[in-house]
Amino acid sequence: MEINNSEIINKVSNSGLVTIDLEDFYEKGERVLFDIKDNLWQGVVLKEQDFRDFLKLHDWSQYKNKNIAITCSVDAIIPTWAYMLLSSKLTPYAHKIVFGDLTQLENSLYEERLNQIDYEQYRDKKIVIKGCGKLPVPTNAFVHLTNKLQGITTSIMFGEPCSTVPIYKRPK
Fold first, then answer.
1. CA angle, 116 as apex, 110 and 121 as ends, to 5°?
2. Is-contact 70 94, C-beta < 8 A?
3. In this structure, what are the phi and psi dihedrals at residue 12, rounded to the nearest 5 degrees?
4. Is residue 86 classed as helix, strand or coil in its secondary structure?
5. Going by DSSP bridges, is the β-strand pair 155-160/163-169 parallel, antiparallel, or unpaired?
6. Contact 85/55 with Cβ under 8 angstroms?
């Protein structure tokens, strides 16, 4: 039996692939859903004076550095000014405030971080967008990143460098 003493070559590291892990763009901080339904009279109507009283008495400091999604999860007519008042109280404390649910909050957090990238660093590169991880990365982040990279890179793939799904290849 002949023993091959040749060096092991890591073809992935020599391929020129650049891996982008969206988990690297995960915004730290607690996510909180602020549901205005708890301020509705009989679960149906928002009374302006009661709501203003709540706003004055509520401890807003508990939202310090948190990411807040404000919504109403029940079928009620909430005037726009109510969300505006709520936002004005949260703004001095919260890190991020969006109107919507926690999914919309996560989408907004990722979009903000992804818009800060200098995409020129990926010009003419082969990109692998990592697909698996431990943190919840919304599909919207993958779509947003693909839109930003397409046309700049030579190719975009999804998955791991050893097993990818082709997404985009620049036409020749």
1. 115
2. no
3. -65, -45
4. helix
5. antiparallel
6. yes
Cα separation, 20 vs 49, in Å, equals: 50
Give the predicted TM-score (pTM) of the model. Answer: 0.83
Report strand pairing: 96-99 vs 31-35. Answer: unpaired
Residue extents of the structural domains in the chain = 17-27+111-169, 31-94
Are 23 and 134 contacting, i.e. CB atoms less than 8 angstroms apart?
Answer: yes
Report the half-sphere exposure of 123 (CA within 13 A, side-chain side). Answer: 3
d(CA 50, CA 125): 58
Residue 87 tokens, joined:
């936002």
Structure tokens at 28: 């730290």
Question: How far is the C-alpha of 161 from the C-alpha of 41, rounded, in Å?
Answer: 55
Q: What number of other Cβ atoms are within 10 A of residue 112's Cβ?
A: 12
> Tens place of pLDDT for every residue, the chain, 172 residues?
555 556 544 444 445 899 999 999 999 999 999 999 999 998 889 999 999 999 999 999 999 999 999 999 999 989 999 999 999 999 999 999 999 999 999 999 999 999 999 999 999 999 999 988 888 899 999 999 999 999 899 999 999 887 889 999 999 8
Q: Phi first, then psi: what are they for 116, rounded to 5°?
A: -90, -10
Residue type, 2: E
